[in-house]
Write a structure and sequence with these properties.
Blueprint: H1 3-24, E1 59-61, E2 81-84, E3 90-93, E4 99-102, H2 107-115, H3 148-154, E5 158-161, H4 168-176, E6 181-183, H5 193-203, H6 207-229, E7 241-248, E8 253-257, H7 263-269, E9 273-274, H8 275-278, E10 284-286, H9 289-295, E11 299-303, H10 304-309, H11 312-319, H12 321-324, H13 327-330, E12 334-337, H14 349-361, H15 363-366
Parallel strand pairs: 1-12, 4-5, 5-6, 7-9, 7-11, 11-12
Antiparallel strand pairs: 2-3, 7-8, 8-10
Helix pairs in contact: 2-5, 5-6, 6-14
């Protein structure tokens, strides 16, 4: 790639890299699958609180750790597969025998396993910690930073990634070494899960399997939403007003996520009122005291390690008095979930919704 192409690719990557820095700043590696997954419960709307606003105290949402069910056994990719990736680069994949699928949430690797090509995966990112992949070597030895040496040592035949990991020069180096690198869309939400699955599947020569997996994922999400709707109060004034707060105490980072961040689709699916989108809060922005108090959330969603980084609920209320002034702060109504799961928006999205709904509407079952 020439210098002009290199600059253009780097420029395209920079905005998403900045967002990724927010999501990883001041935090060690997440360890999905290391929590008490075996204790997770399936959401039962019949056991839901009559008044969701009445509950006091925090809850942890735990996704049940179930084995991945591939959509196909020993699929036969149609190769070569030529795709135009999310950055407009034409990429031809001729060999999927040694796969790396890398992103900040471990979503692309889960998609690969769900397509039936898990046996071809040779390494993982920090966030990919599900049982089927956790014993493979990491190519992000320092948090979420890609290591060129670690990748080249594994000699991948293709890399599927997005712009949430860096540095970008490492991926350029892989391309210059002759390794096909397919960049999929980094914009994630429940509404784009099927599209992301399709992008990964097309690059691996499995468009039919991708379509089937996308359909299965959408059916499961729809079923989860239907169950959750049964627990949501009919009147808008009785629905929970929710906010998603991103915390990294060691770095002094406190962001409120709004429309277009993906959390808006999550909150809507959970039957909540997204207070950030309600006031036109776009994307990820530093939280303001006045804004948060005015939004008046009844419940605040957070990442588990983020909450730990500020010293738990007590530490958060001490660091951000504005949070303490909200109904959520007054009732200590916080729901935390593993950093690598809550915004993954992949094949296990329905399980994420199920776990969050349990923590929100049947909090006693989440304990």
């Amino acid at each position: 790639m020439g210098s002009v192409g290199r600059r253009a690719a780097s420029a395209a990557w920079a905005p998403r890299a900045a967002a990724a820095a927010v999501l990883t700043g001041g935090c060690g590696a997440a360890t999905p699958g290391a929590g008490p997954g075996a204790g997770a419960r399936s959401f039962d709307p019949a056991a839901a609180l009559a008044d969701p606003k009445s509950h006091t105290g925090p809850s942890t949402a735990v996704v049940a750790e179930a084995a991945i069910e591939p959509i196909a056994t020993n699929p036969r990719p149609a190769l070569p597969a030529t795709v135009t990736d999310a950055q407009g680069t034409l990429v031809t994949v001729t060999d999927v025998s040694r796969l790396l699928a890398l992103d900040i949430y471990g979503t692309t690797s889960r998609i690969v396993f769900s397509l039936g090509l898990g046996a071809n995966v040779i390494g993982r990112d920090t966030s990919s910690g599900f049982a089927e992949i956790q014993d493979l070597p990491r190519v992000t030895p320092s948090g979420n930073t890609l290591s060129a040496e670690a990748i080249l040592e594994l000699a991948p035949s293709v890399i599927i990634t997005d712009t949430s990991l860096g540095p970008w020069d490492v991926l350029l180096q892989m391309r210059e070494a002759g390794i096909p690198v397919v960049v999929v869309d980094s914009h994630r939400s429940l509404d784009t899960a099927a599209e992301l699955i399709g992008q990964v599947a097309a690059a691996l020569g499995l468009p039919d399997e991708g379509a089937e997996l996308a359909q299965r994922t959408e059916r499961q999400i729809a079923a989860a939403k239907e169950a959750i709707a049964k627990a949501v109060p009919a009147a808008d004034q009785d629905r929970l007003r929710m906010a998603f707060l991103y915390l990294r105490g060691s770095a002094g980072v406190y962001y409120l996520f709004g429309s277009g961040s993906g959390t808006d689709s999550l909150i809507t699916a959970l039957g909540g009122i997204d207070v950030a989108s309600e006031v036109g809060w776009d994307g990820m922005q530093p939280v303001t005291d006045e804004g948060l108090v005015a939004m008046s959330p009844d419940l605040i969603l957070v990442m588990t390690r983020g909450l730990e980084s500020v010293g738990g609920v007590d530490g958060l209320l001490e660091r951000l008095p504005a949070v303490a002034a909200t109904p959520a702060g007054t009732k200590r109504r916080f729901v935390d979930m593993d950093d690598a799961q809550i915004l993954a928006f992949g094949p296990n999205s329905a399980d994420v919704l199920d776990a969050l709904a349990t923590a929100i509407y049947t909090p006693e079952a989440a304990q």
